[in-house]
Structures are given as structure tokens and as C-alpha cells.
Amino acid sequence: FASYYGDHMVLQKKPSGAVVWGHGKLGAVVTVTLSGASGLIIMKKTAQVKGPSGTWTAVLDPMDQGGPYALTAEQGLENVTLRDIYFGDVWLCSGQSNMAMTVLQVINASQELAAAARYPYVRIFAAALALSDVELEDLEQVDLPWSIPTAAENLGHGNFTYFSAVCWLLGRSLYEALGSPIGLVEVAWGGTPIEAWSSRRVLQACGLPEDTERGREAPQISLWHGACFNLKPLLCFAPPLNPALCFSTSPHQHLSGPQKPSVLWNAMIHPLLNMTLRGVAWYQGEPPFLSPGVEQPPLSHRALTSPSFWGTGEANTFLNTDQYNCTFPALIADWRQAFHTGSAGQTEPLLPFGFVQLSTYRRRSADDSFARLRWHQTADLGVVPNARMPRTFMAVAIDLGDEHSPYGSVHPRDKQNVAHRLLLGARAVAYGDKDLVFQGPYPTRAILEVTRGLLNVTYSQELICRQRDAQAFEVRSEISSPKNCEREGNTDGGFSSPQVCCSSQASPCQWLLAPVVAVGSRTVTLALSGCRTLLLGLRYAWAEWPCEYQACPLYNPQGLPAPPFL
Fold first, then answer.
1. How big, in percent rounded to 5, are the helix, strand and coil portions of the chain?
2. What is the pLDDT of residues 85-137, one digit of tens each?
3. What would the pLDDT profile of 417-453 be if each residue is shown by its tens digit?
4. Beta bridge partners of 127
5. Which residue ranges make up each domain of the chain?
6. Nearest-CA neighbor of 358 among 390, 389, 313, 315?
7. Which candidate, 28, 18, 39, places its Cα nearest to that of 181?
8. CATH class of segment(s) 86-207+255-289+312-439
9. Nearest Cα residue to 442 out of 473, 469, 463, 420
10. Whether the predicted pLDDT of 227 surpasses 60
11. Across the strands, what pairs with 102?
């Protein structure tokens, strides 16, 4: 069998058929037998070993959830039997260090670890870190073979190793909601950009270099694309940002190690393509932990030098930030096609894909790269699923900041709320629970009352206001020239104020605060006293650290925060 098959594994249940494959002698016939606990043969499949690498592949008949089963591959007089196998749903969890954070590192870690024994039918697997300049057929190494969860041996193995807290908490919650065995596959590496997880097809589609050197020139992708959300024509956000602000480039002109384009796709994703999946969870985009000019909390030497912790440097808040609105949707589409093809059509073409919108980093930062990347995570449309990102779901995390995390503020410890929000999206999008509210309120229209100097914003859901005085909204007005349009630095502790963008003779283009006057059942009324000209833009929670812990201005009755918008 290939490297990621083993005792205790979970294979995908019906309506899909699980794919199993392995290595053998060229031309030989391999017989695959699935047997029940009593030894009763459930099914047999035969497959021929084909070249040039000498592999065989078999697609099992769709199976109901449950187990245990035994799976035997026999070639001549040789045979290998895998035991304690269950059929359920298999989820792949990928990304960088926030996905790699283990159950040992979250809040209430001791309680979470102690609860592991209650979930023997949530099985876990972790691939080892590996990179390659060419696409590999199988994993080079496995960190954690398929295992029944235990507190010390696997869920709490160490910091940024295995097992992923977000992945585990999501899988555990899916098991509680569905009652089906769950298989979790962790494939994550800290500090890695999306380009490393992307095939060459994605890089080509987005106009990015495929080698390790990149210049400072890149195709411009407007931050304003698709930002109109059914507003009056007066309020459509057409003007582009200052082109100088549209790129995040690193002073390092060469990428190396796990940051090189496609090296993680080649070594850690491509080998898994034959696997039949039910869904994907993704947490990626945050900067590396070790950043110049940022005070670092004390950590052990082992943690600081662990490659799974922070890789070799930058991720997409520092690298190709404004290409993320291409690279992320393109990666999703490419992974879907690749897994569908690799599994002989058993993984569905629109594989459900959930992700975590970036949380917070530096409280007093005037840098808007986090805000821009959050926007680009939605393909510049604010919410998912959308036309560019069908069958996706998002966990908003702007209100889960953790300034005192011992692992750095970029690694918040509240992964329980992250997993809960992912669970809601998975149930709604992947499992079709149409009555479930899985995302926060989002604006559907805005009406300007010129004579009263007010802007009334209507939302898609009932609103709960937790912070009337919080600074969250901005508006934007007439622009004399795009090159003059730059936002002034935020000096108010990093929080994003209610803002509009207006123009005057003294200031050709400027984002202005738009204080909240009133919050109704589904409306927010903003004061535009500082804006006496044409209004062109409105944005919400547009900051690296938009609000305090679980204290953003707007939520729905289910406790889900309103996502940022532009």
C-alpha cells in the first residue's frame, strides 16, 4: 500500500468509492479484499501494476459508514493486511502555522486533551514536512500514521507538530454533529506562502513566476473589483487604490526552502491526489512569527528552530498580497480538479473548501496588508460562497485576537471558536443544512440621505451591536487623482474606525470616520458630518487589529461577527 494507508484509517464512505493504491511488480495482478470483523468477505477488486513507477489502483464500491474492516492487498504469495478500518468522511487540513498549532497550544488545552478518549472514531494522520522541485507520486515520510487519538502521544505531541488543533476540533465537532467516523489528514507547514502550495498551473493562471526568483513587477489586480454589493451607482467603489499600494514585495529577491513556488504542492499535496476526500479546511496567509521590529515573546530554542513553526520567512501578508484574489480561488479550483481526476472521479468536482479569514497581528499597526488579504481571501467579494468561489465557507476570526499568546499574537489560542465557525460552514455548504446560519451579517445596500448627512446601511441579517463606540466604518469620496489616494496612518491603537472617504481642496482623497448614529434590527446609520462632497466608498473593520476579543461592533443573534468589507 502507499504511505498514507494503514491500520486505524478512515476511508471515504458512500456515495463516493474509496480509492486505494500501492506499489508492486510491473505487470503483476494485485487482489484487494475487504473483509468484515468476522472475516466475511465484503468485496474483491483486482488491479494490474502499471509503469513506469510500478503502481496499482483500485476503486472500492461505495460503503455505508461504519466498521471495523480489514483490507488486504495480495500479489502472488505476498500479502499485506490493514486492520481496524472504518468508512466515514475524510477531511484534508492544510496551510501554515495556525493550522499546525497543536491541541497542546490552545486555551483549555488540558481539558481538550483529556476529552480525546471520547472520540475513538475520529482518526488522525499527519504528513511529514517535505519539499520537492518535481511532483512526487507518494509521500516521502509520515509524521503520524493513522492513529486513534490520545492526549500525549499524538494530539499533544508538541508545539507546531501534530496534531492540528483546528483540524481536530473541526473533526471532533463533525463527528458529534453527524455521528459518522471522521478521518483527518494534516498537511501544514508554518511560514509558507500560497505559491508554495500551488501547482504551476495556478502560478501561470495568475501571472506569477514559476521559478525561485521574482521581480518587483507583477500584474495589477484591482482591489476594488466586484465591490459594489448592489449599492446605488453613486456608491459603487470604482476607483483603484494608489498603484504603489497594490503590491507587497519583500526586500528578498529570492525565495528558498518551503517558500519556493510549487515545492509543497509537489511533495505534500500531489502525493495525496488519489485519496477520496469529503472536504478541505485551510488556514494560511498570516506573516511569519519572526518579523523585524516586532517584539517577540520568549520561546524555547526547540520551538524557535522548528521548521514546522515558522518555515523560512514570509507568507502572503508580505508576499504577493494583492495577487491573493487570484491565487486563492485558482488554488481551490486547481485542487478540486486534481483531486477529482486523481481519485478517478470519486472526489466530487466541487469539493467543499473551508478556510479561516485572517485574525489579528499587531494592535497599533497602520499597515493594511492584513485587511487587504482578508478581502482577497473572498476574491474581493466580501462573503463566500460567491460566483468566483462556489461551495466554499469561511470562519471570520477578526474578533479572536490574542495579544498575549506565548506563541506570538499572530497565533491566537482560541481555536475552539475558529473550529465552531468552520463547522457551521461545513454543515451548511458540505452537508446541505440549508436552515443553518453559518455566516455573519453582510451589507446588501446603502442609501445616502444628503440633507441629513447620514448613510443608512442595510444588512442581510438581524444585527446585534456589541460596541456602539467601536471604530469600524470608513467612507470615501471624490478623488482628483488615484495617485493622491492614500489612507493616513491609524493612530488610535490599531482599531478600525467607522470611516468614509471624502475629498476637499485641502485633501484630494481621504478616508474619514463615520460614527455609528443608530443600529436598528437590520440597519446601521452612519454620520457623514465630515464629508461634504461626493461619497464613493465605505469600508468596515479595515485594520490589522479591528476590535477587541469577541467585541467587534456587529454580530448576528447566533454570535457570528460581520465580516470586513470594502
1. 20, 25, 55
2. 999 999 999 999 999 999 999 999 999 999 999 999 999 999 999 999 999 99
3. 999 999 999 999 999 999 999 999 999 999 988 888 8
4. 142
5. 86-207+255-289+312-439, 443-481+507-555
6. 315
7. 18
8. alpha beta
9. 463
10. no
11. 164
